Amino acid sequence: MKSDTWAPHVTVAAIVERDGRFLVIEEHTSAGLRINQPAGHLEAGETLIEAVIRETFEETAHRFEPEALVGAYMTHFARPERDVTYLRFTFCGRSAGVEAGRALDEGIVRAMWLTADELRASADRHRTPLVMKCVDDYLSGRRVPLDFIHTHSVAPVVRA
């Protein structure tokens, strides 16, 4: 097996709308302060749905209840040290409450609610062009039922 095997980075993101406003985060990045949906990487052993629930809670303190998949998005970034590909699964759903006073993930400055127009006006501060693309897809009514996603669990291999 080659040590330089290519693999995409799998991420999840949440779209939460309430009264015409979207839950987003403001976070420190290498490019400065940026706006993003609550999002993050799939961790070993998680389902995509478990990952988006966890990431949304860690970044916003909101208990996310996914209702549908908005879309799957692939982005390639050419970087001097190595090209990177992200495969992002964006879910929409609702907040089932917030845990007031909960510390947010490192690097997250705050969670906030912005309208689609406010998000469009701040496009230069988006972490990725997918921020607005996912909101636009959501607003256009794009929804895929959650049972479209299947996770096949395999018993772990026991090694002596």
From TrEMBL:
Quaternary data: Monomer.
Cofactor(s), by name: Mg(2+)
Keyword hit for Cell inner membrane: no
Enzyme Commission number(s): 3.6.1.-
Enzyme class: hydrolase
Molecular-function GO terms, alphabetical: nucleoside diphosphate phosphatase activity; ribonucleoside triphosphate phosphatase activity; thiamine diphosphate phosphatase activity
UniProt record similarity statement: Belongs to the Nudix hydrolase family. NudJ subfamily.
Keyword Kinase among record annotations: no
Protein's name according to its UniProt entry: Phosphatase NudJ
